[in-house]
Specification:
Length: 260
């Protein structure tokens, strides 16, 4: 579970609700026509931009990547790959067939090598798999960005609708209140959907995509090194180049012998 996403979402909702109930009833902020305009209009515009299947997939990816921490620990992966490389150098690739490998991407790469595929072909297949995963996540990010763009726009549409209704019935004082509610609440709904849900999820998907590229790039380099018969230490150095500076520092600190 990604606590940052959960805490941020709950905090945002609670702050908005608290602001609504201070000095008034939360019921006045519920308006069905406004909800229909913003939610319905945003959904319609999104479906016009993308396919229905892509939109359903984007919702699944958005929830998964925003609330579930799917990232593997890079240092643990490096240590595991070094262990596999050491065993492969000593006993050949076939000894890896009996190894229990938790990471599906790493397991697939090792299995392809054990099955006798050419190392360059294995790396190409893994690269294609990574590119496809990144492409799908970038599409999901684009869909949530589209939602973030459409929601405020339909909030403005609702505002204009409410103002037109209000101005066209100025002679009837009882119609001014409901029309003004539509005018103001649609803008509120659009801003909340965009800035509390859609745009943050799009940014989180972008963050996860960068992590996928880093981790899977590291794994491709590691599997390639194993299949090429490289030294575990050489493989480690290659994989470390995919990590951020903080990971590099941690790895180097662990590798250094204690003074004295």
């Amino acid at each position: 579970m990604d606590l940052a996403t959960l805490i941020g979402l709950l905090a945002g909702i609670l702050i908005i609700i608290a602001a609504m109930i201070v000095g008034s009833s939360i019921g006045i902020f519920v308006n069905i026509p406004s909800i229909l305009i913003v939610v319905g209009g945003t959904a319609a515009a999104t479906l016009m931009k993308f396919t229905l299947r892509d939109c359903v997939y984007a919702l699944k990816v958005g929830v998964k990547l925003s609330f579930l921490n799917t990232n593997n620990e890079p240092r643990a992966l490096i240590e595991r790959i070094m262990d596999l490389a050491d065993k492969a150098r000593k006993g050949g690739l076939l000894v890896l067939e009996e190894e229990e490998i938790d990471n599906p991407f790493l397991k697939r790469g090792v299995q392809l090598g054990v099955d006798g595929y050419d190392p360059e072909l294995v790396k190409k297949l893994l690269q294609n798999e990574m590119d496809f995963a990144v492409e799908r996540q970038e599409l999901s990010q684009s869909i949530f960005k589209g939602i973030g763009d459409a929601a405020p726009a339909f909030g403005m549409v609702g505002t204009l609708v409410g103002l037109v209704q209000m101005l066209s019935n100025m002679s009837d004082p009882s119609s001014i209140g409901p029309s003004m509610a539509v005018a103001l609440l649609t803008t509120l709904y659009g801003a909340i959907i965009a800035n509390l849900i859609a745009i943050p999820i799009a940014d989180k998907i972008g963050l996860r995509t960068a992590e996928v590229m880093k981790i899977k790039g590291l794994l491709i380099a590691g599997v390639g090194g194993i299949l090429d018969g490289d030294s575990p230490r050489i493989i480690e150095d290659v994989m470390k180049s995919y990590l951020a500076d903080d990971h590099d520092v941690a790895l180097n600190a662990e590798a250094q012998p204690e003074a004295g």
